[in-house]
Amino acid sequence: MPNRETVAQFTAQVLSGDHAGAIADWYGEDATMQEKQGEPCRGREVLIGQEQAALDRMERVETELLAPPVIDGNTAVLRWPFTFHPKAGGQRSMEEVAWQTWRRDPIAAETFFYDPAQMKG
Description:
By secondary structure, the protein is of the alpha+beta class. The chain has a single domain, classed as Nuclear Transport Factor 2, Chain: A (Roll). About 25% of the residues lie in helices and about 40% in strands.
């Protein structure tokens, strides 16, 4: 079960821009990530690779946390807005809600909810 300090350390790492490092440091070896109701991706190394590939296409990613995380038992819920600045130019912004299931300190599963229309344009 995560405590506020643990989740604060995780969010600080993400807010610093170390998205792939946060996966390496905070997700369990067999962790899953799922976008909306899609098929989950499984395994920390796969998750790191996918995150790094997405980051490699960006000049930078601006990340915010809109409110303190909601923590209840093994669940933490975070509301993140992101602004993506692709190397090809332009920018896109989106807001997502991340629903995390923690197994002690590592994150075991995370599902992202967002409106895909935010990424159009």
